[in-house]
Design goal:
The chain is mainly α. It is built from eleven helices and two strands, in the order H-E-E-H-H-H-H-H-H-H-H-H-H.
């Protein structure tokens, strides 16, 4: 009788976990659609405007129930992946709380099977709460690497356009049309700032702060100094592109030097047992 009751409890908890998974899937789909819309830009009369959304009462409850330190940390991290606004913050918090609920469900399952494993289950739930943060950190790193790889080619285009006689803002518009990826998103936002009347100094300072990318910070700093001291922009762009290309080549050489170390363990783990079997056999 006791065993049957335990199996009933386990079945109920498993169904609850599956229901939570379905709800999280729906929230994920909704979050992606909102992100695709919120990342869009509405062009009208030559002005780029961001699309704004209002959060619901449930989203407001999620925000208010989260400590300020966690919210500030998430806002800074989301800004580095190009996601600004309450809609992205709420989506990230929903993911964290969803993983926490899944961890608590498994914790109760473990407690039903063996009360001594309850502490491990709750530690697992706390660990699952930070799973979205790990994914976000990977996105930040991947985005910064992508920006670093795309920036030298974009600066070369900008240099050619400026040398051909175009003013900087017109050349910047041309580069925004031809670039792609995360760099294009950031250039579009900087272009929107310039079109809204923000000074070039403030626009490029915001570019460096918004992305957190070291290469974009250096580029923004160089542009600010060039604008401040009256240095020809084409010379600054050419120097920045060459420095970035040298840095990219150095990173590639560093990764190539790490390859022998990385393949040592797989070779030993895969080939050594086979060699031993052949020798013994």
């Amino acid at each position: 009788m006791i065993t049957s009751n335990i199996f009933v409890d386990i079945s109920i908890l498993i169904l609850a976990a599956l229901a939570i998974g379905v709800v999280l899937g729906r929230l994920q789909a909704t979050r992606r659609s909102r992100q695709n819309l919120a990342l869009g830009y509405e062009r009208r009369f030559g002005v780029v405007r961001r699309i704004k959304y209002e959060v619901s009462e449930f989203d407001t409850f999620v925000l208010n129930s989260t400590p300020m330190s966690i919210r500030e940390s998430l806002i800074a991290k989301l800004r580095f992946v190009g996601k600004q606004g309450d809609v992205f913050l709420v989506a990230q918090l929903k993911q964290k709380y969803g993983w926490l609920l899944i961890g608590l469900a498994f914790a109760f399952i473990l407690m039903a099977l063996s009360p001594s494993t309850g502490a491990f289950g709750f530690l697992l739930a706390i660990g699952l709460f930070f799973v979205p943060d790990l994914r976000l950190a990977e996105q930040i790193k991947a985005r910064q690497v992508q920006i670093g790889n795309l920036l030298p080619d974009a600066l070369d285009q900008l240099t050619l356009l400026v040398d051909s006689g175009l003013d900087f803002q017109t050349a910047f518009v041309r580069v925004c049309r031809n670039s792609s990826g995360s760099l294009n998103d950031e250039f579009q936002r900087t272009l929107a700032d310039l079109q809204l009347g923000i000074t070039r100094k403030e626009a490029f300072e915001n570019l460096g702060i918004r992305t957190g990318s070291p290469v974009l910070k250096n580029f923004a700093r160089a542009m600010v100094l060039a604008d401040l001291f009256g240095v020809p922009i084409s010379n600054v762009l050419r120097s920045q592109a060459q420095d970035l290309r040298n840095a990219r080549r150095a990173r590639a050489e560093e990764e190539a030097q790490k390859i022998p170390t990385k393949i040592t363990f797989p070779l030993v783990a895969c080939l050594l047992p086979v060699i031993l079997i052949l020798l013994v056999g």
